[in-house]
Amino acid sequence: MKKYLLSMTTLLCAFVITSPVLAQYTGPKKAAQFTTVTAAAKASDGTYVMLEGFITSKLREEHYTFKDATGTIEIEIDTKYFPVNVAINDKTKVRINGKVDKDFAKDATVDVKQVDLL
Quick one: the chain helix, strand, coil %, rounded to 5? Predict the structure, then answer.
C-alpha cells in the first residue's frame, strides 16, 4: 500500500511539474486612439483606432462601408461584435474600435472588435 501511495504521489508531482502554465498577461493594453477615417487610412498596419460615424452600406458578408466627416473606409465586423437585438442602419451613429489592416497594394481596412451605439 505504501508503494502504491508513493508511486501515485510521484506520478502526480511529475504531472504538476510538467503541465503547461495557465497564466495570462493581465497588464495594460495598448489603447485605441480616437481618430478619423482619413487618419486611419494613412495609419500603419496594426494601429488600434477608434472611429465615430455611420455604417452606410454592406459590401459583402462581414464587410461594410464606414463613413465619418472626413471620408469612407471599408470595415470588417464579425457578427458576434454587433450589439445584440439592436437594428443598425445608415442613420445610426456608432463608435467602432479595431485595428488597421493594410495588405500590399490594397486600400486600408479596419478589423472591428467592438461596436457601440451613440
Answer: 20, 40, 40
pTM, two decimals, is 0.71
In tens, the pLDDT along 19-68 reads: 555 556 666 666 666 789 999 999 999 999 999 999 999 999 999 999 99
Backbone region of residue 46 per phi and psi (left: phi > 0; alpha: psi in -120 to 50; beta: other values)? left
CA distance 87 to 110: 21
Contact between residue 56 and residue 113 where contact means Cβ atoms under 8 Å apart: no
Q: Which helix (H) or strand (E) holds 76?
A: strand 71-77
Residue 56 CA to chain centroid, in angstroms?
21
Q: Which domains does the chain have, with CATH numbers?
A: 33-117 (2.40.50.200)
